[in-house]
Amino acid sequence: MALLTDLINLDLSETTDKIIAEYIWIGGSGLDLRSKARTLPGPVTDPSQLPKWNYDGSSTGQAPGEDSEVILYPQAIFKDPFRRGNNILVMCDCYTPAGEPIPTNKRYNAAKVFSHPDVVAEEPWYGIEQEYTLLQKDVKWPLGWPVGGFPGPQGPYYCSAGADKSFGRDIVDAHYKACLYAGINVSGINGEVMPGQWEFQVGPSVGISSGDQIWVARYILERITEIAGVVLSLDPKPIQGDWNGAGAHTNYSTKSMRNDGGYEIIKSAIEKLGKRHKEHIAAYGEGNERRLTGRHETADINTFIWGVANRGASIRVGRETEQNGKGYFEDRRPASNMDPYVVTSMIAETTILWKP
Amino acid sequence: MALLTDLINLNFSDYTEKIIAEYIWVGGSGVDIRSKARTLSGPVTDASQLPKWNYDGSSTGQAPGEDSEVILYPQAIFRDPFRKGNNILVMCDCYTPQGEPIPTNKRHNAAKIFSNPAVAAEETWFGIEQEYTLLQKDVKWPIGWPIGGYPGPQGPYYCSAGADKAFRRDIVDAHYRACLYAGINISGINGEVMPGQWEFQVGPCVGVSAGDQLWVARYVLERITEMAGVVLSLDPKPIQGDWNGAGAHTNYSTKSMRSDGGYEVIKQAIEKLGWRHKEHIAAYGEGNERRLTGRHETADINTFVWGVANRGASIRVGRDTEKSGKGYFEDRRPASNMDPYAVTSMIAETTILWKPT
Questions:
Q1: Which residue, B319, B323, B301, is CA-closest to B310?
Q2: Would you call B31 an interface residue with chain A, using a CB distance cutoff of 8 Å?
Q3: pLDDT digit string, tens, across residues A89-128
């Protein structure tokens, strides 16, 4: 294996200017990540310097076999933590050859919302808390859980250390550093309440960049779990019973909310979100009804409530924001498998553009 | 797996000024240690430069769900031996949003005692001998012990070497180095009397720093045992029967005790501790009654006895101290699961501030 590692780590920059670009896109389920690589003649600093590309959409449920090309438009670049050197990861979105976004392309509409002048003026910031579960490869049972049984009940695991409490930290720490290397704004990590479950946070990011960074962070995580021989699950309720689900709490603020008097703006924004609760829930991830039960630090899916420091609410406002009279709030409804382009743009649309 | 290791060891300081800070706090049981990490914009040199943070207290038994935020105040920083670079570990204590220490926050009161002018003037030094047991992961039986059985009786194991006597020295040595790297004042290690049991010592530390350093040393140990696939136990009597328990003997001296004539000051201090024996015992760790039996190098929990070089005493004074007429003494009563903030501050309070009525 020594030779294989040498080759994986081969530094090409000594012998050639060429770089490798890994083009990443979202597949037909809206949640599966796909990627393939191409050689470019030299380093690039901006996505506009990258060529469009295409892939076989009939193999990802995104095009019929007799008209299978889906076009990839490069949208954001990051340093490749696996190939390192000048090699890059490229987040793309998908179009028909005629230039129309395909149905699973949620970025296109999000970019329109985020380029609306009213939204631009408000500089919407997002901090997304991505929760996820690690599963043992062949049995799809959570990492660290005895096969055919269950671990002791929740309580000791949140933010814990210890071989009997914390499972898979090497994956989590490798992911943290890899994302920082890549240029993703990862702001932190923690072990979660259910054993084998973890969380990382990305943000604050402005507008469309939040979605780009979350998708690439998810891609890097799936690559790292692949290396580790463990399976990544973004299911919002991987285990039924007295076990927490997995969410993607989305923290949000606009310029007005961050300024003096912002607390009133926050309250009006929350009120508007309450009036569109059903519409948001429909876009906040498949299977969320298994997770939003009113137990395990969630609010029931049919209820909209907000509160300060209340983790059983749909929307939580932090004590600091209440105390300072300005800040941000946390939408706790999105599921771990949500599409960040959809959720971030919908929150901006409802709170800034929508009039009841 | 080579690639995963590359990523864990990635030195991203070539690409960004950012650092990772692991905030550590004591959870709802008073013994469980919790932590989570955040990215900061650049290196820091002092805890005062770090922002306060908060966590979900409803998940650690420290707050109700509808009012769950517990605030973390950074108190001491150490270099992170796992992430290395400019990354740090931050020992914190816990407050309500209104700024009140929560009930499990023993540091707050300790800091008050240690900043009392009479206490500060005496420059209280502490050396804590943390004993602990390593358990096999799935059966929770000590490492090196046969499953369903027992090893040979105690005798050969204390400070031993050999595959049949010393179990998982790699964890102990890794911990020693990691703590030195982190900036913890770890003064030594040794294999203990019960097989699978070890000890490290932290000190001398002044005042509240003893507690900070011991808690972070415990955290580093739990992280290392996690990597090693072995479980750390701080239970004071992990195995019933003719097997030693685990303590946290606390060595103590003040400026007066370290100066000429100190031996008299030591004797008075021990006398005061004797009068408050019950109060101290109540704060010296849960389950200590299973350990302080009068056997296995302990004094009975209801008895207060002190002596020179006497390991069956509640308090032992070393021969060196007796001969020089000054020095320090060892309170052998605290259990391995004691809270060092509570124990160190209580010893200082009783010996320096308390006046018998």
A1: B319
A2: no
A3: 999 999 999 999 999 999 999 999 999 999 999 999 999 9
Task: Say whether B7 and A177 touch across the interface (CB within 8 A).
Answer: yes
Interatomic CA distance for residues B357 and B352, integer angstroms: 15
Least CA distance to A313: which residue of chain B?
A: B66
From chain B residues 289-318, the ones with a CB under 8 A of any chain A CB are none
Contact criterion met (CB below 8 Å) for B253 and B125: yes
CB contact B14 to A (< 8 Å): no
Task: Give the Cα separation of B221 and B230 in Å (integer).
Answer: 11
How many C-beta neighbours within 10 Å does residue B254 have? 22
What is the Rg, in whole angstroms, of the alpha carbon atoms belonging to chain B?
21
Give the pLDDT band of residue B2 (cuts 50, 70, 90): low
CB atoms within 10 A of CB B267: 13
pLDDT in tens, B169-195: 999 999 999 999 999 999 999 999 999
The ipTM estimated for the assembled molecules is: 0.88
Q: What is the pLDDT of residue B11?
A: 83
Q: Which amino acid is located at A12 in the chain?
A: L
**Least CB–CB distance from A177: residue in B8, B67, B230:** B8
Which pTM does this prediction carry?
0.92
Q: Please state whether A173 falls in left (phi above 0), alpha (psi between -120 and 50) or beta.
A: alpha
* Separation between Cα atoms, residue A336 and residue A325, nearest integer Å: 30
Percent of chain A topping pLDDT 70: 99
Q: Which two tokens stand for residue A227?
A: 């290396």
Residues of A in contact with B67 (CB under 8 A): 308-310
Beta carbons of A181 and B12 less than 8 Å apart? yes
Query: How close is the nearest chain A Cα to the Cα of B137, in Å?
Result: 7
Q: Is A159 on the interface with B (CB under 8 A)?
A: yes
- Catalogue the E-assigned strands of A5-101: 19-26, 33-40, 53-56, 69-79, 88-95
Residues 6+ apart with CB under 8 A from A300: A292, A293, A294
Q: Where are the alpha helices (DSSP H) in chain B?
A: 2-8, 107-115, 117-121, 169-182, 209-228, 255-258, 262-275, 277-283, 319-324, 340-348
Q: Are A151 and A145 in contact, with CB atoms under 8 Å apart?
A: yes
Predicted pLDDT at A1: 54
Across the interface, of A163, A297, A320, the residue whose CB is closest to B231 is A163
Q: Could you tell me how many CB contacts below 8 A there are between chain A and chain B?
A: 134
Q: By the 8 A CB rule, do B32 and B26 touch?
A: yes
The pLDDT value given to residue A253: 98
The interaxial angle of helices B209-228 and B169-182, nearest 10 deg, is 140
CB–CB contact A309 B67 (8 Å): yes
Buried b (16+ CB within 10 A) or exposed e, B191-227: bbbbbbbbbbbbbbbebbbbbbbbbbbbbbbbbbbbe
Q: Using a CB–CB cutoff of 8 Å, tell me whether A113 touches chain B.
A: no
Chain B residues within an 8 Å CB radius of A187: 38-39
Which tens digit of pLDDT belongs to each residue from A133-182? 999 999 999 999 999 999 999 999 999 999 999 999 999 999 999 999 99
Residues from chain A contacting residue B7 (CB–CB below 8 Å): 81, 174-175, 177-178, 224
Instruction: Say yes or no for a CB contact (<8 Å) between B38 and A8.
Output: no
